Prior knowledge:
It contains nine helices and nine strands. The protein is an alpha/beta fold. It has one domain (2-221): ComB-like (putative 2-phosphosulfolactate phosphatase). β8 (209-216) and β9 (219-226) form a beta hairpin. α5 packs across α6 and α6 (146-158) packs antiparallel against α7 (167-174). The N and C termini lie far apart (34 Å).
Amino acid sequence: MQPTFTGVSGLSVTPGAAVVIDVMRAFTVAAGALRLGAEKIVFTETAEEALDLKARHPGWLAFQDGAPTPGFDLANSPARLRSLDVAGRTVVQKTTAGTVGALAVADARLLLCASFAVAGATARLLRRERPAAVTFVITGDDGAAQEDLACAQYIAARATSDTIDPAPYVARARHSDAAARLADGVRRGWAGVHPEDVGLCLEVDTCAFAMVAGREEGRLVLRAVGSRPAG
């Protein structure tokens, strides 16, 4: 498996196999929602589209990033996710990094979304599928996010060996600009940011499933593939 690491702007063609990374916080939240029993996650290009889908489907939830916005149920916080009942429900997600990256490679033959939470399961799926080449899409900071690159490189290494120590990769993420911004947001009292968010984003293999995306009825939908304990 030949890995390539790039931002969305560096994509010139749709890759055959892609792993889209957003550690802080979209795909940590997505993994948490699926672990808590959400049926699926639908990605949208705009906030308006997300709210329209929620309005047309009673019981659906809508997640976005940034400050809390009327109509949305969560502002992309893995800690605040714990207060929501997502079991059996569909989540509509719109963010400025993770979902944008996934939609940019929506036609990949194999499309995975990942964070540290699903790193091991993602690596095992890659090992099973054995793609000749994998494009890791770094979504944060216009492709420069160190936490996303660290996670991508960890998954790439784990795809060849189960003995890789995650600690150096997690340390890089802990000292990333994104982690610093979230910590600063907590100090400033920003709405939608929780003191536990950074720590939760750095927890490795809290989910036993990979997250596989594919088109369903014209929309890009993310589902858990593999073991998924409830609660």
